[in-house]
Amino acid sequence: MHTAPAVAAASSPDTELARRVAAGDHAAFAELMRRYNRLLYRTARAILKDDAEAEDALQDAYLLAFRAIANFRGEAKLSTWFVRIVANEALGRLRKRARAAEVTYLDEATRDGPERAALRTEVMRLLESKIDRLPDAFRTVFMLRALEEMSVEETAAALDIPEATVRSRYFRAKGLVREALASEIDAAFEDAFGFAGARCDRMVASVMARIAAL
Question: Whole-model pTM above 0.90?
């Protein structure tokens, strides 16, 4: 039965935690997983492009790391060492997937249809919300030019404004929409492919259970 040391693992440097894991401290390994779950999940997810498979790859990579951590010599950062193990595991799965695809045809268009439709719906709602927030004069020009694809001349005639005003308002409206979308995307970067809370807890619990069964 392995128990956590009196000193909080969170305050320990990676090398100290690695040494303790090599000595049989399971709690130290759990702390390392919590420390690097998001980084390593994002690594696997970037390669495999599938949430469930990325989690499976991460679990197997953690077991490999647990068995091999006694060989860690500190020539590189522990995080880099972990990333290499996870990347190798994910790439191996990718190669197996490619070989399987040679003998098994998957109708990607059908399988991804609902997902792509949902994504388009979300993008459409986001775009609509940003257009709705444009100043009235800009929004009308933008709707006619971008969505209805009316020409500058047609838009000017419809709104009874000079063509130069149509061009300037449309240019400004596009800029405002781009800025709003960019801000939304920037704010989402930190949460993209997140691996905190319940997902982090589930990964730690699952790996620790597999380690206990070794």
Answer: no
